[in-house]
Amino acid sequence: MEQQQELDQKMTFEEAMEKLATVVSDLEKGELTLDESLKAFERGIGLLRVLIGELNTFEERVEVLMDDFYSEAPSWLDDSGRLSK
């Protein structure tokens, strides 16, 4: 399972979304055994962790970019639309 997590960490956001969609589809079909369903569920949770991590990283990068932008922007520019922290 640990090896799978390492592979998951190397996926792009889009790849992880595709894999998660496949896992969900497989679970929804209801054709898996109980053991297979549990393994698929665990896989889905692992993929969700990857996706959440990517989204958090993206949000942090956007905040840094916006902070940099507003620190260099003219004072007349209203920054009321900034992302909340």
Give the secondary structure arrangement, pairings included.
Elements: H1 2-9, H2 13-29, H3 34-72
Helix pairs in contact: 2-3
Task: Explain what you see.
The chain is mostly helical and 85 residues long. It has a single domain (2-72), classed as Helix Hairpins (Orthogonal Bundle). 75% of the residues lie in helices and 0% in strands. The protein has helices spanning 2-9, 13-29, 34-72. Helix 2 (13-29) runs antiparallel to helix 3. The longest helix has 39 residues, at 34-72. The protein is elongated and about 60 Å long. The chain starts with a helix and ends in a 13-residue tail after the last helix.
Task: Let me know the average pLDDT.
Answer: 86
N-to-C CA distance: 35 Å
- Label the overall shape: elongated
Domains counted in the coordinates: how many? 1
Q: What is the number of beta strands?
A: 0
Question: What is the percent of helical residues?
Answer: over 70%
- Low-pLDDT runs of 5+ residues are none
**Succession of helices and strands:** HHH
Q: Sheet with the most strands?
A: none
Please give the CATH class: Mainly Alpha
Look at the helices and sheets and give the structural class.
Answer: mainly alpha
CATH fold category name: Helix Hairpins
Q: What's the Cα radius of gyration?
A: 19 Å
Number of helices: 3
> Into which percentage range does the β-strand content fall?
under 5%
What's the architecture in CATH terms?
Orthogonal Bundle
